[in-house]
Protein 1
Amino acid sequence: MRIDDPKIIAALPALSVDLSRSASLAELTSLSIGGTTDLLRIKKHECIPALLNLLDSQGVPHRFLGGGSNLLVDDGELPWVVLQLASPQPDVVLEANFAHVDAAADLGRTVTFCAKNDLGGMEGLIGVPGTVGGALRMNAGAYGMQIGSYVREVKLYRAAARRIEILRGDQISFEYRHTSFAPDDMMLAVKLELPSKAYKEILQGIRICNEKRRSSQPLGQKSAGCIFKNPPGISAGRMIDELGLKGLNVGDARVSDRHANFFVNAGKASAKNMLALIADVRGRVRSAFGVELEHEVVIWNA
């Protein structure tokens, strides 16, 4: 979608918003799949309500983009513009055991920065791609931990109320790969309370997690992480593997040979290819095990 309204274009500089024309979502997502649309990069949180009111008043549909690491976007010209936060500097500020983190901050760099200041607890997230905001939205976790355990406050834009709010951690439901945030809530910042731990001890935990990932995940390939959530007490990847589906492909969309719940873009896969592969695998698991797999990857259909 292209923003042609002169009223919107004229208002963007005062709202601290940069406009990028015909941005490729394939270049902004870890799967390297996605069509094109205008991109609005937001540099000041406090300008978000005015920006959204402007877009809504002019009938411009929009979606919020984080780091693009858990996202499958449709092909072609997209029927909405994309909004993305610009990361401020510094994007992490420490205060005793509290870390005040901007939602646009890179998750891995945040974990490393906290570790170097003897704050641990999040070692399992070191290899998870994307932003802190994305990790918050889906309650990212690995190796027995989840980010929600450390959340004390979240600053967010509430689209339903059209205002910025601050929620306490106990006002938010954090479950397995799910939170109580509304789909159109925009994560802005978070306050984490992390346990004190010696950097050397944290580093050892990070090394263990990295070794596990290197041995079991297709690192270096274009993927969106796990495609399906694990049903209670069952591994989605194990069911897919037991059906012998590693290497199954639709065009360049392929079930990873390393981890059956990772689907990779092995070349120039389209969203159509990837969606067809997801539907095929989901149907085979349903037929064989009677289990309806739920998407963990977020899908943006045009």
Note: DSSP finds seven helices and 19 strands in the chain.
Protein 2
Amino acid sequence: MKTPKNKHIDLTAAQKLIKNRKRPIDPQVLSAEILAGNTIALSRAITLIESTTSAHQETAQEILAACLPHTKNALRVGITGVPGVGKSTFIEALGMLAIAQGKKVAVLAVDPSSSISQGSILGDKTRMERLTADANAFIRPSPAGDALGGVARKTREAISLCEAAGFDLIFIETVGVGQSETAVHQMTDFFLLLKLAGAGDELQGIKRGIIEMADAIVINKADGTNTTAAKHAKTEFSRALHLYRPKASAWQPKIMLCSALKETGIDEIWQTLLEFEAHTKANGFFESNRQDQNKYWLQATVVNTLKDRFYKDETVKQQLPQLLDTINTGKVSAFQAAQELLKNFKKATSGNSIDERHLKTKDQT
């Protein structure tokens, strides 16, 4: 191994890290470490979940299967808002308060991915210094990729692993750049919308879809000269909420003010989370909502798996560029080309269905 050029790098530690990375992954050992609360093992398992390598995916599924019976009913909180609204500062303030109340907090922060380079900065840990340093917290930034709503496709599996590792409060921070937030709403119990006052954000935020999903609207940065504007925004949102039908949870969404930087209003938000959990568990919505989410993610996983199989198929890879040329020259429509691709994909995979493979194996035995 070459000696690192940076004098601040510990050579022994670097060699140990490389050796550990080359070591084969034992799903049973990694699962046991996750159940014991080892956050390094938890990070490795989430990396496997996010990997597109088939071998990693198989290992990840073994780990998930071992951890699933040990998942706890952690409170899952989705937090969204436009860039600059202060999501990271807010999560750190609320997370530190929860830890002071005896909770273990996990943060799954989804960073935007560049449509050009496909890269992500993944800088959430640097924006949550206190939470990062706390032994009762775990922060995992992940690239959004092309997932709708800024929620990485594998985030739901990561939630299960965090619960198995003993975290009882899980924040899912979304990109919040105007994409559909249905995905995060379908994997959380409580959906919190962070807003800004005095930035033209009040009326822009009163949109039926996002408001209907929110269990609480929090106007951040309500301090200093922005206090009056924040109070005005609170009034506007309170009026808007009266236009919407009651939520299925029978919960009345709350509009609150806070300053994450000054840590004012955070205690009221924490109490609101506890009230919501008690309310929805008492009326049965908490469990029924989890069951509806299971159905949603089963269907979403089937769609995503079929999509992956389709674009990885060799027949599709060969014919797709040719059909794109025929579309561009006006010889066929996009619909006709898609039907042709699907027909050829079905032919190529007709003998490889799960049921047929199972029957062949059964006949051989």
Note: The chain has 17 helices and seven strands.
Protein 3
Amino acid sequence: MRKLKDFNYALLGKWCWRMLVDRGGFWYRVLVARYGESDGRLEVGGRSVSKWWRELAKISDGVGEGGGGWFSDRVFRRVGNGRNTLFWTDRWVGDVSVCMRFSRLFDLTLNKSSTVADMYSLGWEVGGEAWRWRRRLWVWEEEMVEECHNLLNDFIVQTNVTNRWQWLPNITGGYTVRGAYQILTSNDNLVLDDTGALVWHKQVPLKVSILAWRLLRDRLPTKNNLLRRDILHNATILCVVGCGNDESTSHLFLHSDSFGSLWQHIRNWLGVSGVDPYNICDHFIQFTNSLGTSTNRCSLMQLMWLLCVWIIWTKRNNIIFNNIQTLMLELMKKIKHYSFWWLKANKTIFVFASEKWWSDPLQYLGVD
């Protein structure tokens, strides 16, 4: 028997797909006349819009009960000439849209509606005319621009190739109601829903939670993922730590010679035993509950997991872009340092010094 709720979402997803690939149709022009269009996207509308339209908006944006990212996480814009592809808001490079990855820069740019072709022709290299801001950038904002440059370095606009949307689960066949229904009813999707709520932690910086959200959906630009998008070649996908394996998400974060051992070091520090599952989502759930199921214990382990994946990713990027090597002892110092200050920043009563946190964290928090 079909699950009618999931089947209905799959049918609504078909409309979301058509709004991407069939914008020249008469039906699309009717929707534009009814709801309006801004920056190449149909407006959600006010209170008078139909329930059908609101549900479509939730699915497209990956929010609400019918959202959860099952649709938006699986569509990708394959860019050729860059026309009709919005530089900031369409998902065309990396795992998420540029405006989501660099939300601060999106707030400051004067070119919010520019296409990829527009930005490329103006020049998106360092100092190019494409980067126009409403005020002078601070140093940390300049560093974000540099990170954006690194993301665009290997991309080349192909003027004789048209842009197209891709449905990642079936790149050749595109979106089907049957395929979407299978995704919505699969066990993997249920596990992803369970972990999706765990990435948001009030004591963890937003940028770390966003990184974890992308990691759990396998949307980080690991070398294996870049290979699937034809950005890298087979010869260049080996893990950055030099272990000789391909740089997949699970290998990099859980099983590589360098980073995989970090999890056991954290367990030893906290006095917890356990093993690392192969799957990232299973690892997150198991690690979060490894100290017990009370709210305080789960919250602590949740924070530690989010911090650890952030440390691993920044370390990996330092090896690639800056050729900076870091010993395991230094990584553990970073874990202890950042966890202390993240917890302290959100507690009005935090009387002990950091030395006690380093030596006995559970007693320090009163959860031993």
Note: The chain has three domains: 4-75+166-185, 80-152, 189-365.
